[in-house]
Specification:
Blueprint lengths: L4 H7 L7 E5 H15 L3 E5 L6 H8 L5 E6 L2 H9 L5 E3 L6 H12 L4 E5 L2 H11 L6 E7 L3 E3 L2 E3 L9 H11 L5 E8 L2 H4 L9 H33 L4 E4 L5 H4 L7 E4 L1 H4 L16 E12 L2 E5 L16 E4 L4 E2 L9 E5 L11 E5 L12 E6 L2 E7 L10
Parallel strand pairs: 1-18, 2-3, 2-11, 3-4, 4-5, 5-6, 6-9, 9-10, 10-11
Antiparallel strand pairs: 1-12, 7-8, 12-13, 12-17, 13-16, 14-17, 15-16, 18-19
Length: 396
């Protein structure tokens, strides 16, 4: 599915820029590809990568394999629960009393919200706040899935539980609290799921990353399975065992102990996910900025456009010019808050008022810049649907 500039320009004729959009034909294709990749595992949707309730509903409606959401804050989980969603896993620990108490209120209403924990202090805080309430708080144990090699921490700094002995201490501790129940285990192998291994022009580095990823995946998969087996032998069946991410699904689903995988970025397929050897999703989400100047030949200056992704500083966090083909950011200015010059020497006769289409490096972060996503289907503009921001929500 290789779109062209004229296709999108015609579809959005007369729409005021800047705007963000989702091509539903490509979005739906990505959904089907993801279902096919995960086999018989359940899929938990990473809401951080979507930030649009309409599109979350659209995914859930495709297949019964989509079960539950992974949220990035407790406040987001509470808000989504109020919108009618359920089976909500908060991916990061929550320590502020008001946030925890807001989750308790939803639990009292019958909602299922799992709080993440990896330290005894997390359990103590949750338990103290739950005293006197007629609730049992479901907890998910977050285990560390990074690898450590001489001089290299391969992965991200998340959980303190990086071996079976530490997991045992944590599991035993959960049994001491009347108001807490350990219901799930999660392990996120970020160094495989979120690290591209086929970046253009980085052949040697790509080879090294693929070697480390293969080595790391064997190691952390064994760690996760060992912890899961001991835990279930000690306390009984869990509601779920979660792993994976868009970039590691193919490998994660091979683990027999896992019941579900998490997927988020693959639905929009931002530019950071162009750099994988094992899969290629369609670029379903993008945004348009307007040409307002032409200061010299082959330079077209657009209004706005400087939407840079979070993470380690690097060129890969910049937006990528998507259309017209051959257009690119200029070396000296790159993408700016108020103006973004585009260099283009192709055959299309660009004029003032024409759009330049770009893609964000990350998925959900694009939605922090727009109140709505325009939906496109078979070349026709359908409507705009609100992002979290458009619904008045900002969680981080």
């Amino acid at each position: 599915m290789r779109a062209n500039y004229d296709y999108y320009k015609a579809a959005f004729e007369g729409v005021e820029m800047p705007f963000a959009f989702v091509d539903l034909d490509l979005f739906d294709k990505n959904i089907k590809d993801i279902v096919q990749r995960v086999g018989d595992k359940s899929i938990r949707i990473a809401t951080k990568s979507l930030r649009c309730t309409t599109l979350i509903h659209r995914i859930l409606d495709v297949s019964p394999q989509f079960k539950g959401l992974m949220c990035f804050t407790a406040a987001e989980a509470v808000w989504l629960a109020k919108q009618g969603f359920d089976d909500l896993l908060v991916a990061y620990p929550t320590v502020h009393p008001k946030s925890i108490q807001a989750v308790f209120q939803q639990l009292q209403l019958g909602k299922k919200i799992y709080l993440m924990a990896d330290k005894l202090e997390h359990l103590e805080r949750i338990s103290q706040l739950a005293e006197g309430l007629q609730i049992t708080v479901p907890i998910c144990m977050d285990i560390d899935m990074s690898s450590r090699y001489p001089g290299l921490h391969f992965g991200v700094h998340r959980s303190t539980i990086n071996c079976l002995s530490k997991a045992k201490l944590f599991v035993e501790a959960t049994q001491q609290y009347r108001t807490i129940k350990l219901c799930g285990i999660m392990g996120y192998e970020a160094q495989i799921a979120g690290l591209g291994n086929n970046v253009k022009g980085q052949g040697i580095k790509n080879t090294l990353i693929r070697f480390l990823q293969k080595k790391s995946m064997r190691e952390v998969a064994a760690r996760r399975q060992e912890i899961v087996a001991w835990t279930q032998n000690r306390i009984g069946p869990l509601d779920f065992v979660n792993g994976g991410g868009t970039g590691s699904v193919d490998q994660t689903v091979l683990e027999s102990s896992l019941t579900e995988v998490t997927v988020g970025s693959g639905f929009y397929s931002p530019t950071l996910f162009d750099n994988y050897q094992q899969f290629c999703y369609a670029p379903a989400a993008a945004y348009a900025i307007e040409i307002v100047r032409q200061p010299t030949d082959h330079i077209y200056t657009c209004m706005g456009g400087g939407y840079v992704a979070s993470g380690a500083l690097g060129r890969d966090k910049l937006p990528l010019v998507h259309l017209p083909y051959g257009a690119k950011l200029t070396e000296n200015e790159m993408a700016g808050e108020v103006q973004t010059p585009i260099q283009y020497k192709g055959s299309i006769d660009l004029q003032l008022g024409d759009p330049i289409f770009l893609r964000h490096a990350k998925a959900g972060e694009l939605c922090e810049r727009f109140n709505e996503l325009l939906l496109l289907h078979k070349g026709k503009l359908l409507s705009g649907v609100p992002t979290y921001r458009g619904e008045g929500q900002c969680f981080l």
